[in-house]
UniProtKB/TrEMBL annotation:
This is protein-tyrosine-phosphatase. Keywords: Hydrolase, Protein phosphatase. Its EC number is 3.1.3.48. Coiled coil: none annotated. It comes from Hymenoscyphus fraxineus. It is an enzyme of class 3 (hydrolase). Belongs to the protein-tyrosine phosphatase family. Non-receptor class dual specificity subfamily.
Amino acid sequence: MESLGISSLSGVKYIPDLYISDRFAARSPALLRSLGIKYILSVTHLQDVPKFAEEEGFVGKHVEIEDDVTEDLIVHLQGCCDWIDERLSSLDGEDGDGGGVLVHCTQGISRSAAVVIGFLMRTLQIDFDQALAHVRVSRPQANPNEGFEYQLKVWQQLSYDVFDSEGREKEGYKRLQEQRVRVLVGKEDALVKERFKGVAVLVADIGKMRGEEGEWSGKSEAWERVEMMEEKWRRSGGEVEEEVDWRGGFALDGEGWGRE
């Protein structure tokens, strides 16, 4: 395992006192203190959130986010960015209670990078590619999954807020959510088909082995059931559906959302 050090925790270009890391660096009090980090934003699973005693002086926030292209990242972006902004602003406060901010996930590659990129996009008013380039200056492995990338681009077109002035979901966000539901349902259907196919193959293999051992002969009821399962499988579409483009045919254009 790579030794823990500065290389596992990276500063963010143009934003002093903002850092990104994996879960291991986030658990090192000595490393955090050496960089003046006080605030820790964990965008990962609960088991990867660092646990410090209150007297150690660290302040944390946890947001449960899966590293999956269909995960609803966009709904968390404003809250995460506001939290980072408030913590960094406290560095200049009169109470002297400021400290650096660390954003981490499991490996410091996708989820934490996506949140930091979103913060840069909103703060510096730059696009996704520019923000990603800034992060990769010090953290070349930063690589949000394609679902996060697309949502960040949508978020920019939604003016960094999924709600309008009356608190209603904006049309672009609603379309994104509708497509997400369709893809999730499709993934579940594909999983069921794959499991069904696996059971049929397993039963067939067991039947063949028993037949070779002389326990079965001729056309058994078990074989008939296997053939019925295989026929049902063929009627249901055979192979698992190809992976669906989670964006659902929507493309970003100059006015926001349009059809490809």
